[in-house]
Amino acid sequence: MLFRSSRLTAWLQSPLAAILLSCVLFALIHWPGLYLRGGPGVDGWSPDPLQVAAFTIATLSPLAIMVSVLWARTRSLLLVVLVHGAIDALPHTAEMIQIFR
C-alpha cells in the first residue's frame, strides 16, 4: 500500500501506470531479502543481483497486481492484509503441519 496512492496516480496521470509502477516497486522492495538472505538452492537466488531483481519483478509483480485490483475494487485494507498474509503463509503450511504433528 506504500506506493498505491492518489498522488502517484495524479503524478503519472494514469491509474493503470500508477498500479504498474507500484507493483514493480513492490517487487523491488523484496529484492534485498532474496539477494542477501538467499543462497544456492533457494528459488530465484543468483550471485548476479540483476538476475535476482528480474526474478523478483517477474514473480512478485503479478501478485502485486492482483492485490492492487483487490484494493481498487473493495477499498478494504483488512482484506488486502489478509490476502498478503495468506500468500506468505500458504507455501509453508505443509511444513508447519509436519513440525507440529
Based on the model shown, name its key terms.
mainly alpha, 101 residues, single chain, 75% helix, flat
Sum up the overall morphology in one term. Answer: flat
Number of helices: 6
Order of helices and strands: HHHHHH
- Structural class, from secondary structure content? mainly alpha
Poorly predicted residue ranges: none
Between the first and last Cα atoms, what is the distance in angstroms? 36 Å
Tell me the helix content.
Answer: over 70%
Radius of gyration: 16 Å
Oligomer: single chain
Task: Write the SSE topology.
Elements: H1 6-12, H2 15-29, H3 31-37, H4 49-74, H5 77-89, H6 93-100
What does the model show?
The chain contains six helices and no strands. It is mainly alpha-helical and 101 residues long. The protein has one domain. The protein has helices at residues 6-12, 15-29, 31-37, 49-74, 77-89, 93-100. Helices cover 75% and strands 0% of the residues. The longest helix has 26 residues, at 49-74.
In short:
This protein has 101 residues and is mainly alpha-helical. It has helices at 6-12, 15-29, 31-37, 49-74, 77-89, 93-100.
